[in-house]
Amino acid sequence: ANGDAQSCRMELGLDPAVSTLLVTGASQGATSINVLMTSLARTNPQLFEHWQILHLTGSGADEEVRKAYASAGIRAVVQPFVHEVGKAWGAADLAISRAGANSVAEAVHNRVPCLFLPYPHHKDMHQLHNAKPIADAGGAIIVMDQVNPERNRASLEPALAELLSSPHSISEMRVNLERVAAPDAALHVAGLLLTSLTRMS
């Protein structure tokens, strides 16, 4: 609910009335995402003209990212991490995120459309597999992290520009996330487990 988003923003030091982009590499941070965002801030700051950014950089990277946003005139709150990550997701209208299981679950739970940049060096590519059902349902866009900042910018910037300038697209993605979220999913799973246990006994 919008009131919840506003209270989350206030608690995090953001403007409650301004659309919010969450940028997170999950608990460890993600160097390639930090570099990508500072590069975007330098080359295309007007992209974020009507937005504010909550950027969770991971340990030790916050100062450099904060400076990049400040010198580009971009409204941003930059932290290494937040203890209550649910508040960060609760504040967001859109997110750029890794696609670990927790991040994907938070995005769905909070109905936050995402540009997922799966970590590219896992042999099993499990982050890509985590994100795929959400993207297939129309609640996210997957952009493979190519690590190189120029290549990342070339692949992410058009999708990000389209979303930042289109509240309608974000609303459509949020509606798709409502469908994915199925609030009774946990009950359904518990029911299936109970049924199979009953059959076994």
Quick description:
The chain has 201 residues and is α/β, with parallel strands linked by helices. The protein has helices spanning 2-11, 31-43, 62-72, 85-91, 101-109, 126-136, 149-164, 167-181, 185-200, and strands at residues 19-24, 51-56, 76-79, 94-97, 114-116, 140-142. Helix 5 links the parallel strand 4 and strand 5.
SSE topology sketch:
Elements: H1 2-11, E1 19-24, H2 31-43, E2 51-56, H3 62-72, E3 76-79, H4 85-91, E4 94-97, H5 101-109, E5 114-116, H6 126-136, E6 140-142, H7 149-164, H8 167-181, H9 185-200
Parallel strand pairs: 1-2, 1-4, 2-3, 4-5, 5-6
Describe this structure in words.
This protein is an alpha/beta fold and 201 residues long. Helices cover 54% and strands 13% of the residues. It has nine helices and six strands, in the order αβαβαβαβαβαβααα. It has a six-stranded parallel β-sheet with strand order 3-2-1-4-5-6, sandwiched between helices. The longest helix is centred in the C-terminal third of the chain and has 16 residues. It is globular, with a radius of gyration of 17 Å. The termini are far apart. The mean pLDDT is 89.
Q: Count helical runs.
A: 9
Structural class: alpha/beta
Mass-distribution shape: globular
Largest sheet data: 6 strands, parallel
Mean pLDDT metric: 89
Give the N-terminus to C-terminus distance in angstroms: 44 Å
**Ranges with pLDDT <50 over ≥5 residues?**
none
The quaternary organization reads as single chain
